[in-house]
Amino acid sequence: MTKLHAFTFNAFGEKTYLLDHGNGDATVFDPGMSTKMEQEEFAKFCEAIGVVPTQCLLTHAHLDHVMGTGWVFERWGLKPRVHPLDLLTYEQAPRAASVYGVRMDPPPALGPFLAAEERIRCGPSELEVLFTPGHAPGHVVFVEHQQGWVIGGDVLFERSVGRTDLPGCSPADLVKSIADVLYALPDDFEIWPGHGGVTTVGAEKRENPFVNAAGTGMMQST
């Protein structure tokens, strides 16, 4: 069985995920490691559990989610995959780093673009790619239907949602992505977000103050 591991990296408190395939391979999601210490922490963990990362997948290409792509490529030769609508965001990440005053290695060339409804094999697991724009033009999430979890990026958080004040954001698209895509999943599915703790689809449908199943969220009533 595959097993998911979470790390909190960089000045933005971004969540990087590692999926152990159970056969010695692993998938890295949103590599945000930004310092030698964070890089060493991740590499040593991989060695300790006996895995070698073999693919790198991005929910979206905002700076904090791609800061480690250069190092991951240098270490394991992995070209990150992203939805084509986030290509410009990916290319502008070094510029965003300079604006925020943070260090970032040059990002590598990309691998094949992700496609909505694509199925990605990770050992015995299969991940479905769902298109969830709003926080970023090409934002996607990765759904593991058998085990019931989602790598959710910055769409839906525990009692919160992704910000919509950045270039390429769309509040209307974000509401639609949450209400029509994520809330269509079973209530017991876990959401592993790009920041903060794990939540569930059902908890957010009931209690999220911004977008909920009742249609009374702050972003739904405007």
Q: Which key features would you list for this structure?
A:
222 residues; globular; single chain; 7 helices; alpha+beta; Metallo-beta-lactamase, Chain A; 4-stranded mixed sheet
Summarize the structure.
By secondary structure, the protein is of the alpha+beta class.
Give a verbal description of the structure:
It contains 7 helices and 12 strands. It has 222 residues and is an alpha+beta fold. It has one domain: Metallo-beta-lactamase, Chain A. The longest helix is centred in the first third of the chain and has 14 residues. The protein is globular and about 45 Å long. The protein starts with a strand and ends in a 15-residue tail after the last helix. The mean pLDDT is 97.
Strand order in space, largest sheet: 5-6-7-8-11-12
Give the terminus-to-terminus CA distance.
44 Å
Biggest beta sheet summary: 6 strands, mixed
The global form is: globular
Rg is 16 Å
> Which architecture name does CATH use?
4-Layer Sandwich
Mean pLDDT over all positions: 97
Which topology does CATH recognise? Metallo-beta-lactamase, Chain A
CATH class category label: Alpha Beta
Structure class: alpha+beta
Q: Considering the protein shown, what is the CATH homologous superfamily? A: Ribonuclease Z/Hydroxyacylglutathione hydrolase-like
**What share of the residues lie within helices?**
25-40%
Query: What count of structural domains?
Result: 1
